[in-house]
Amino acid sequence: MDLFAGCGGLTLGIAQAAHKRAVALDVRLAIDFETAPTKVFKANFPKANVREGTVESYFDGELGASLTNQEAETLAMIGEVGILIGGPPCQGHSNLNNHTRRDDPKNRLYLRMARAVEVLRPSAVVIENVLAVVNDKQQVVSRAIVHLKKLGYDVATSRIDLLKLGVAQTRKRHILLAIREDALPFGFSAADLLQIEDHKAASRDLRWAIGDLFGVRPKSFFDEAAVPNADNQRRMNYLFENDEHNLPNEERPECHRGNHNYTSMYGRLWWDRPSQTITSGFATMGRGRFVHPEAPRCLTAHEAARIQGFPDYFKFVDERVKPRYELTRTEVQVIIGNAVPPPLAEALTSRLFDADVLQASGGPSQSAEDDFAASAVSLAC
């Protein structure tokens, strides 16, 4: 079950780990409150139970309270769950959000994950968020940990560096992992299972991620860079004409000059380094270091998706999908920027499979291989 599901980055990682073990994935419920990412999730996981709506409309009770009528209906609909995953909204924790930073009401949605655990009692729980979630004024992480422990879960948290999971960007995430004590294998703790970083792995650079896409003939806006305004085009040309990667102050807008530490803003990427963290602003040079290393343009949606760790078979834009879904360029940019890189969930789920925390229910699906070959995810009800 995937709460705050977005386009399905976490679910895709789980599907990839399951597929390697010839296990089909049954997505009992995936919820997101926005239409555009829900369309993408449905198109890529056609057998999943995907709903557009709010998580609190399915889990509306207070922590520790008896199940509400709605929660009883949710439990009857969902049944047994092996793993519950979710990435609650993180904008309220952003260092760029100066109005409600650390005290945004949306931050409390983190605790809806704990309530969902209370209702469903899954074997494993994964909650993904930005590092700054631990600074929330409502102390949502510590409150969730206390409650999960009361429910009989072993809980651990960690700062995960996605560079060490093969993702070609400098992105770190806060992960909470909870394992129901009767599902915890002998000799293991949740902290043991959360050790997923490969400290011997070499960092993957931008050329590894998107080098083969340079010069590709576009079939849609997915492979077309956004057209910049005249001033930003001139700035991008300056970077290449002067072989620069950081735009000097005199070339920046007046509001971005002076003493500052935002050198990546209006910057150009390097082929032999990882990308900076991909955000929904990857198509605009004024939103970060998003200028292509070899051409005076910003990243395309396809390139950004690759840097996020999405394989090409995952379709953000595909007219062949039935039912067809039409999304705007801006919607696709936001979906990709908000997505969780699938390699994170794949690495963690692989650990849970290896430790027998997660097991196939009723054996591998007979159609698992065929389903995966057709849609690149293995879904069976």
Q: What amount of the residues lies in strands? A: 5-15%
Could you report the average pLDDT, rounded to the nearest whole number? 89
With helices defined by DSSP (H or I, 4 residues minimum), what is the helix count? Answer: 12
CATH class call of the largest domain? Alpha Beta
Structural class: alpha/beta
Distance between the termini: 13 Å
At the fourth level of CATH, the homologous superfamily of the largest domain is Vaccinia Virus protein VP39
- CATH-defined topology of the largest domain: Rossmann fold
Biggest sheet, open or closed, and with what strands and sense? 7 strands, mixed
Order of helices and strands: EHEHEHEHEHEEHHHHHHH
Shape: elongated
List the helices and strands and how they pair.
Blueprint: E1 2-3, H1 9-19, E2 30-32, H2 35-44, E3 50-52, H3 69-78, E4 83-86, H4 110-120, E5 124-129, H5 140-150, E6 153-161, E7 172-180, H6 190-193, H7 206-210, H8 230-241, H9 301-307, H10 329-338, H11 342-354, H12 368-375
Parallel strand pairs: 1-2, 1-4, 2-3, 4-5
Antiparallel strand pairs: 5-7, 6-7
Helix pairs in contact: 1-11, 4-5
